[in-house]
Design brief:
The protein is built from 20 helices and 13 strands. By secondary structure, the chain is of the alpha/beta class. It binds pyridoxal-5'-phosphate (PLP).
Length: about 450
């Protein structure tokens, strides 16, 4: 398959180019140029199909011509030593737990696949361009990324130990939680944590400036791994197909997914799976108070605005970048989008109350993001679910990652998984730097040139 920008369909590129380039040169997002029909493939899977089976089969189809079937299999095996699990909450509402990977959040799926395919392409000298332009080499990449806390840990874990790749993560000193800082700074090796004397905006600005700096571009193979990268987005479609395969023996009523959403990458990946033939009747987009997409669905106006802080902070996005991809899929036709996506907005008060209710009534800890989805699913069932349909709610993070919110909701903390506990006792290794491009340049040239 070829990929083109959401802004102009002319410049068609390969998957490897889209992966190393990140953003299209015209500022748009790379997007599949075709909609392959995978209906037969999807219907052939059942609850004996492993996540790796499904990931391998779908990648072989999506990246045919660039990645062979055997390569797709070995990439899937390497990227996914973890897999989703289903927790049935009710007859018709299930959780799809996506937090069994190394950083305990769904972003592990995209980050791990991206890291594995980048290593695969570099290993074979298949680097078709890259944001660095002339600085791009065919056997080496330096990933530069800024994080406000949570998203960096999935990238750090995913790229740790990958051949030919260094990762430089900038984070604001004193502004990430102690456990988030440990997840970023204790890996070492090819993962370089830079603790910036400044705020998150400074970190983002430094990364942006580095990408357009002619000297750095010339000398270093810089590339990005942010969430708009197709190499992170496309693999998220795999778990929708896997969930369908695991649940289809529960009846042949209508099938819905509820997706706790911020930047709308996860939802977009589900929409891709449906466009490629997954028999889904609809998607429910759950948001916190940052409700620009639900507002668009109800009122027809898309009004991006600064984000507001909520208890589900990984969803605090006021201008979701993947809305551009959704508009491309639905041809900017509000009615078409409405037929497939409904919005549901959940307040901070409802987040706490629902977390407490699930703990009190059923002994289930839910993270503040997941709980927006669970409440949205309950509302949808009460209103629009007919007959023996089922709703699968994506559980986006492990509840123990957000125990401060759990304490607020119920006075109790979710048990910490071993892999989170272990990183808390390891030693922080970070380099403290100033907040200018020159500080970053010095680090890059001294340490990675
Ligand atoms: C990133 C994130 C989300 C939002 O996902 P999008 O793809 O940005 O919509 C939801 N929950 C958690 C825990 C996240 O980390």
């Amino acid at each position: 398959m070829r990929f083109s920008s959401t802004r102009s369909g002319n410049d068609k590129v390969s998957f490897s180019r889209a992966v190393f380039q990140g953003l299209a040169p015209d500022g748009g997002l790379y997007h599949p140029d075709e909609e392959p029909d995978m209906r037969e493939l999807f219907l052939g899977f059942d609850n004996t199909s492993s996540f790796v089976d499904i990931a391998a089969a779908m990648s072989a189809r999506l990246f045919a011509g660039e990645i062979s079937e055997a390569e797709a299999r070995s990439i899937a095996e390497e990227a996914f030593p973890f897999s989703p699990e289903i927790l049935q909450l009710d007859d018709d509402i299930a959780l799809l737990e996506l937090f069994h990977g190394p950083s305990c959040a769904f972003k592990d799926y995209g980050a791990s696949f991206l890291a594995t395919v980048m290593e695969h392409f570099l290993d074979r000298g298949i680097v078709d361009g890259g944001s660095a332009g002339t600085g791009a080499r065919k056997d080496r990449a330096i990933i530069l990324t800024a994080t406000s806390g949570d998203t960096g840990s999935a990238v750090a874990q995913a790229f740790h130990g990958k051949k030919g790749i260094d990762v430089v993560i900038l984070y604001p000193s004193g502004r990430v939680s102690p456990s988030q800082e440990k997840q970023l700074t204790t890996l070492g090796g090819n993962i370089h944590a830079l603790e910036v004397r400044g705020n998150f905006d400074d970190c983002q600005r430094m990364v942006k400036e580095a990408f357009i700096d002619p000297e750095l571009q010339r000398e270093l193979p810089l590339t990005s791994a942010n969430s708009i990268n197709l190499g992170r987005l496309l693999p998220q479609s795999f778990y929708y197909a896997h969930a369908f395969a695991m649940q289809k023996n529960r009846g042949d009523g209508e099938f819905y997914f509820t997706v706790p959403s911020g930047n709308f990458g996860n939802l977009t990946a589900g929409i891709f799976a449906w466009r490629w033939g997954l028999p889904v009747s609809g998607f429910i987009a759950a948001t916190n108070a940052n409700d620009v997409v639900p507002e668009y669905l109800s009122q027809g106006q898309f009004t991006p605005r600064p984000s507001v802080h909520t208890y589900a902070n990984a969803m605090d996005v006021g201008n979701p970048s993947n809305f551009e991809r959704l508009q491309t899929i639905f041809h900017s036709d509000l009615e078409r989008m409405r037929m497939m996506i409904s919005g549901s907005v959940v307040s901070d008060g409802e987040i706490l109350a629902t977390m407490k209710r699930y703990l009190d009534d059923r002994g289930v800890f839910l993270c503040p993001h997941t709980v927006t989805g669970v409440l949205a699913s309950e509302r949808f069932r009460a209103g629009e679910l007919k007959g023996d349909g089922q709703i699968v709610t994506l559980a986006t993070a492990h509840p123990a990652k957000f125990n401060e919110i759990s304490m607020k909701a119920s006075g109790r903390e979710a048990p910490m998984p071993r892999r989170l506990q272990e990183c808390l006792v390891r030693e922080k290794q970070a380099e403290l730097i100033g907040n200018s491009l020159e500080d970053l340049r010095k680090f890059l040239k001294d340490r990675l040139a």
